[in-house]
Design brief:
Elements: E1 2-3, H1 8-28, H2 33-53, E2 55-56, E3 67-69, E4 74-84, E5 90-99, E6 106-108, E7 113-121, H3 133-136, E8 139-145, E9 151-158, E10 165-167, E11 174-175, E12 180-184, E13 188-194, E14 199-200, E15 207-208, E16 214-217
Antiparallel strand pairs: 1-2, 3-16, 4-5, 4-15, 5-13, 6-12, 7-8, 7-11, 8-9, 9-13, 10-12, 14-16
Helix pairs in contact: 1-2
Length: 219
């Protein structure tokens, strides 16, 4: 277990701000013992949560071209056929994973292959479990072509709390299943669009973990 690089700056400046706040309270309100302790407990709890949020568990896997691993930690909220309007422009099998603020927010490549396309779209910040969030919210989409020529799209979607998407994928990059794809800060959603006929291995509402849960098998 380690701390994700996306959290370094937030943790550093957050620590300074909380120290200054608590110091100011102790200086300017020396007789308000209850207030000092309440603020001290709240700020310490907030900082512990930030450490928890930016945790990065070590999850190495042995790449398998026949398996599609979950790209994110969270709960499966959608399994359905849907029209993918951004890249494929046809029907695909959509699996959506909602990530709460308590989930690990590092996103992973579900398959190995070549990054064919990366697209970013600014947008709204409606709640991530809303069906329209995949089309209306700020999002980043990555298409990976597997060694057998199948194309899979992974979409990072900002939510009502998440306001920053980090995507590390570059077009024509060769990537390996399980490597880090990106990071979304403070609650969000990840969609994965698969070829029709893909054999899904999980039920709706199941909790999944990146690099741990097999969500589908692909021929």
């Amino acid at each position: 277990m380690s701390i994700h690089k996306e959290g370094y700056k937030i943790l550093f400046f957050g620590f300074l701000i909380l120290i200054l706040l608590n110091t100011a309270i102790w200086i300017f309100l020396p007789d308000r013992v209850l207030i000092k302790w309440v603020i001290g407990i709240c700020t310490t709890s907030l900082y512990i949560f930030l450490f928890f949020f930016f945790r990065l568990p070590h999850r190495k896997i042995q790449p398998d071209p026949g398996l599609i691993y979950s790209p994110a930690d969270g709960k499966v909220v959608v399994i359905e056929e849907a029209e993918e309007k951004e890249y494929f422009k046809d029907l695909r099998l959509q699996v959506s994973i909602f990530m709460s603020p308590f989930n690990v927010h590092s996103n992973r490549y579900p398959v190995s292959g070549k990054v064919k396309w990366v697209g970013y779209h600014p947008g709204r910040y409606i709640v991530a479990w809303h069906p329209k969030s995949s089309e209306l919210n700020e999002r980043s989409s990555i298409v990976i072509e597997t060694e057998n020529g199948r194309e899979i799209l992974v979409r990072q979607i900002a939510g009502a709390v998440a306001r920053r998407i980090k995507t590390y994928a570059k077009e024509n990059q060769i990537v390996e299943q399980g490597d880090e794809l990106g990071f979304i800060k403070f609650g969000s959603r990840v969609d994965i669009f698969l070829p029709l006929g893909t054999e899904i291995e999980i039920p709706i509402l199941q909790q999944v973990r990146a690099n741990k849960t097999i969500i589908a098998k692909i021929s």
